[in-house]
Fold IS6 family transposase.
Amino acid sequence: MSKLIDIDRLFNGRHFDREVIVLCVRWYLRYKLSLRDLVEIMAERGPSLAHTTIMRWVKRFAPEFVKRWNRFARSAGRSWRVDETYVKVRGKWAYLYRAVDRAGKTVDFRLSARRDVAAAKAFFVKAINSQGLAPKTITQDGYAASHRAVREMKTDELLPEDTTLRSSKYLNNLIEQDHRNIKSRVNAMLGFKRFRNAAVTISGIELMHGIRKGQFNLTQPRLKDTTAPAVWMAVLSDR
């Protein structure tokens, strides 16, 4: 993980309090609110914002929030359900590779312009690196490229030889159901104009989803409400 920017430097030069920035970014990523909805909501609370300002905040701060929350991430299990779903970028379909474990915890995700062997391999490498351990079992649908990616990674010793590969539509209902939480927020955004912006925004949406699923161990400080602004400010602190 890249080095964290000092919290004061992170918000240096901003014309609004960091609490306002955190609130706008979190609400945009978590709820089905448009940028203009947020402008109206914040105006009722005092701050006068432009929708483009909030969009710039999302692009700037979502990656930083992800890095800081990931310090508290719980490891997922080693039985992975893997599937791809679709996201529209500049009017064309892109592919969001995702995996959850048998308990429904998010393992990892990766947005790709293509759906092929190379893209599947890139996803598995990213997921293994983020978890620190390779899966013992991988359950996928019948898409040939994803199965070939696993076989080739075993040959190249990027996956253990004893990793079990299964094809089961029934077992993969878990990941397909989990897609809905991400797609419902993405669909409300009516598509992305740039691939980079799509990847950044989706990373923030996945973070919100992981928080809802209790995938972070906030033992210091001991706070019960993992969506409260106080928790966000604590996590963002450089401790």
